[in-house]
Design a protein that fits this description.
Blueprint: E1 7-13, E2 17-23, E3 29-36, E4 40-42, E5 45-48, H1 50-64, E6 69-76, E7 82-84, E8 94-95, H2 103-112, H3 114-122, H4 131-141, H5 143-148, E9 151-153, H6 155-164, E10 169-170, H7 171-174, E11 179-180, E12 185-186, H8 188-193, E13 206-207, E14 212-214, E15 220-223, H9 227-234, E16 243-247, E17 251-257, E18 269-272, E19 279-285, H10 289-299, H11 306-311, E20 321-323, E21 343-345, H12 353-375, E22 381-384, H13 391-401, E23 405-407, H14 412-425, H15 431-434, E24 439-441, H16 445-470
Parallel strand pairs: 1-6, 6-15, 10-13, 16-22, 22-23
Antiparallel strand pairs: 1-2, 2-3, 4-5, 5-8, 7-9, 11-12, 14-15, 16-17, 17-19, 18-19, 20-21, 23-24
Length: 471
């Protein structure tokens, strides 16, 4: 980014792609740089090379340049454990939020009541890839790695420390699972309940408001929030009752709220935001575009063919039904079921690839509706993420959800990182202009009525599958 015009950069360190986007003062995207990063997946473990991730961040920043840039905002994937030494260097590969090795610990905590105790205290329902179970697993199986580490960071915090030397996290990342949502500080009793009191020094200081620093180039940068709340901010989801559905690798449903409700089924989390007394009720399901990617790969269908195939088969996919729980670690929202797996029913020799693709898209839509209802959606709904590139799937979402959806395209997480940084640096930006939708999709009344009945069938089949998963 060159020239004298003042602009801003948002950095989004995703699970498979690192991006940096440059914006002008009115929120228009000027340039985007991206670099893929790898995932090492084997026998339920999912790890990432921190040097590769950090190197990708440096590359996208260098490609954009800092001339005329007022400041940058940093966001990235949440959960997992990124162990570093005092210099911010990796102690071992990062353990991803997708990792499933700690499922036995989660099972044990579910059975013993520890899981529910933590939820009632923090509003965070643990899953195998979140820091509590991962740290406890490392403490049992790789204590030397924890002994060698100075800090157990989240992804963006690792990048921030490597860039600036500052050791810090923010209230959004710390929300899972150690933060007291009222005091906005770590809850020592929760750390102790997970058997990690002796590892408490590994937790990074919670900076509230988010930490800031200056790079050697003179560029100011802020650290956080992580990608879910950053995307909510970038999509304009701030009023209580309004919601966001991120159709990405993870299908994340978020609803803004000023009410901390720790009753009901322990699932999802309450993400603290930059405003005390304001949370995002989040249901970040493990199901998402990864499920569709698997079906596309298995059937040999390209992404560019999805819209045509969705049009080639009717609602209901000619009787094919999919419970789209493909993740090795099961499901985490709007319920926790580590052993739940995907199921196809109604498949015959007459089933076509179009039927399979529509069925999985419908299944993901039903999972989204389940998450949004559990999160308490009452207002408007925005959709963002890679899935929005399919207009036919967005129409299907509107029909399955039975409501209009605001489509917010582009680098929504990076946009939210800039808006968060602007608040932190005291810069006034027109947030309404920055978060305006690119389209609004209305549901078809007849299809919405059909899917309302199909959704009830989905919930019944899901209940049966959960019973089998526990057997």
């Amino acid at each position: 980014m060159t020239g004298s015009t003042t602009g801003y950069i948002g950095i989004d360190v995703g699970t498979s792609v690192v991006k940096a986007a440059a914006f002008d003062p009115d929120g228009r995207t000027l340039a985007v740089e991206s670099r893929p990063v790898g995932l090492a997946i084997h026998d339920g473990s999912v790890e990432q090379d921190m040097d590769e991730v950090y190197g990708a961040v440096r590359e996208v920043l260098d490609a954009l340049g800092s001339d005329g840039v007022a400041f940058a905002g940093l966001t990235g994937q949440g959960d997992g454990v990124w162990l570093v030494d005092a210099a911010g260097r990796p102690v071992r590969k990062a353990i991803s939020w997708m990792d499933g090795r700690a499922h036995e610990l989660v099972d044990a905590w579910l059975a013993s009541g520890v899981f529910e105790t933590v939820y009632r205290r923090t509003g965070s329902a643990m899953f195998p890839g979140c820091p509590g179970p991962v740290l406890a697993w490392l403490d049992r199986h790789e204590p030397a790695a924890l002994d060698a580490a100075t800090t157990a960071l989240y992804c963006k915090d690792m990048v921030f420390q490597r860039l600036t030397g500052v050791r810090a996290t923010d209230v959004s990342d710390a929300s899972m699972p150690f933060l007291d949502p009222m005091t906005r500080a770590y809850a020592p009793d929760v750390v102790a309940a997970l058997g990690l009191a002796h590892r408490a020094p590994l937790l990074a200081p919670v900076s509230d408001p988010v930490a800031t620093a200056e790079l050697p180039s003179g560029l100011r940068i802020s650290n956080g929030p992580y990608d879910l709340p950053a995307s909510a901010l970038g999509a304009g989801v701030t009023r209580p009752g309004d919601g966001l559905l991120i159709v990405g690798t993870c299908l994340a449903a978020l609803v803004a709220t000023e009410r901390l409700d720790l009753d009901g089924e322990p699932a999802g989390l309450h993400i603290s935001t930059d405003r005390p007394g304001h949370w995002l009720r989040a249901m970040p399901a493990m199901v998402g575009t990864a499920a569709l990617d698997w079906v596309l790969t298995t059937t040999g269908v390209r992404h560019t063919e999805v819209d045509a195939l969705l049009a080639a088969t009717p609602p209901g996919a000619n009787g094919v039904r999919v419970l789209p729980y493909f993740a090795p670690s099961g499901e985490r929202a709007p319920f926790v079921e580590p052993r739940l797996r995907a199921e196809f029913t109604g498949v015959s020799l007459e089933t076509t690839p179009a039927d399979l693709i529509r069925a999985v898209c419908e299944g993901i839509g039903f999972a989204a509706r389940h998450c949004l209802e559990a999160a308490g959606l009452t207002g408007t709904l925005a959709l963002c993420g890679g899935g929005t590139r399919s207009p036919a799937w967005m129409r299907l979402f509107a029909d399955v959800l039975g409501r209009p959806v605001r489509i917010v395209e582009g680098e929504v997480g990076a946009r939210g990182a800039v808006l968060a940084a602007a608040r932190r640096f005291g810069t006034e930006l027109d947030e309404a202009a920055w978060t305006a939708p690119t389209a609004v999709v209305e549901p078809d009344p007849a299809r919405a009525a059909y899917y309302a009945k199909a959704y009830e069938d989905h919930l019944n089949r899901l209940a049966e599958a959960r019973t089998r998963a526990r057997a």
